[in-house]
């Protein structure tokens, strides 16, 4: 009987947090925001950080981006410790005013590519135009930020992030300040882009239905200080599943895990 071929090693996580603990120093002393949080994100996964207000979701995202140092524990990207910001992790924030007001949409998206100095101006603009087309803003290439709606500005911010081709896209409540219709449209657009491009995503939100919609996996956090409660797979429920018994059942389950029988936003 021929010998069996050895099993291939599983692909390492793109992003890991290992016993991540974060403290802030205030006038009253040190305040613990996050304690011993562990998770990993594989290639093409969409991990959503979800928990009560003040549980440290945004702090975790800032640590993943390298904006703040860990008090203890570590963040790894493809097995390498994170020591600061880098082009392998790009953040899209909630605020609309992430764009340079004196630059056009095209130039805003091309700007980080030009700063990196790895592409010529023509190459950077071509890549920027491709990313802008992906978010449906080709007609606004030469528009300035003051002429854009909030939703359009967020599309530009997403295009700018995608144009850099990061290992991980980090999104901190990017749709929270938008009206309901624009928010739903951008949720749909993000899911279509994720299916098309297969990028790895870590997404912070206050809304449990949005978490279930966006995520392939949910990482649930306890009240302050944030600790890992559990990680829940979403079974890839998506837009077509909204309103179905499976979607509603998972939403109720997540509510129960976080709050018991309480319903509403996180």
Automatic annotation (TrEMBL):
InterPro entries: AAA+_ATPase, ABC_transporter-like_ATP-bd, ABC_transporter-like_CS, ABC_transporter_ATP-bind, P-loop_NTPase. Keywords: ATP-binding, Nucleotide-binding, Transport. One of its GO terms (molecular function) is ATP hydrolysis activity. Residues 17-250 form the ABC transporter domain. SUPFAM superfamilies: P-loop containing nucleoside triphosphate hydrolases. It holds the Pfam family ABC_tran. Belongs to the ABC transporter superfamily. This is ABC transporter ATP-binding protein. The lineage of its organism: Bacteria, Pseudomonadati, Pseudomonadota, Alphaproteobacteria, Hyphomicrobiales.
């Amino acid at each position: 009987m021929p010998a069996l071929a050895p099993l291939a090693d599983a692909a390492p996580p793109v992003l890991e947090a290992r016993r991540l603990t974060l403290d802030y120093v205030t006038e009253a002393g040190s305040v613990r925001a996050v304690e011993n949080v562990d998770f990993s994100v594989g290639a093409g996964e969409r991990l959503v950080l979800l928990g009560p207000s003040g549980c440290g979701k945004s702090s975790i995202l800032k640590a993943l981006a390298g904006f703040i140092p860990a008090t203890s524990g570590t963040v790894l990207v493809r097995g390498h410790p994170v020591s600061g910001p880098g082009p392998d992790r790009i953040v899209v924030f909630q605020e609309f005013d992430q764009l340079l007001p004196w630059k056009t949409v095209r130039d805003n998206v091309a700007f980080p590519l030009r700063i990196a100095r790895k592409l010529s101006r023509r190459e950077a603009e071509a890549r920027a135009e491709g990313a802008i087309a992906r978010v449906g803003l080709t007609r606004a290439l030469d528009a300035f930020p003051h002429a854009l709606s909030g939703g359009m500005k967020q599309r530009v911010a997403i295009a700018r992030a995608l144009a850099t081709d990061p290992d991980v896209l980090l999104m901190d409540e990017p749709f929270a300040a938008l009206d309901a219709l624009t928010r739903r449209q951008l949720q749909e657009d993000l899911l279509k882009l994720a299916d098309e491009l297969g990028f790895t995503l870590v997404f912070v939100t206050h809304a449990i239905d949005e978490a279930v919609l966006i995520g392939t996996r949910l990482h649930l956090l306890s009240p302050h200080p944030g600790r890992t409660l559990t990680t829940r797979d979403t079974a890839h429920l998506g837009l077509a599943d909204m309103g179905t018994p499976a979607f509603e059942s998972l939403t109720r389950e997540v509510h129960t895990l976080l709050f018991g029988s309480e319903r509403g936003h996180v």
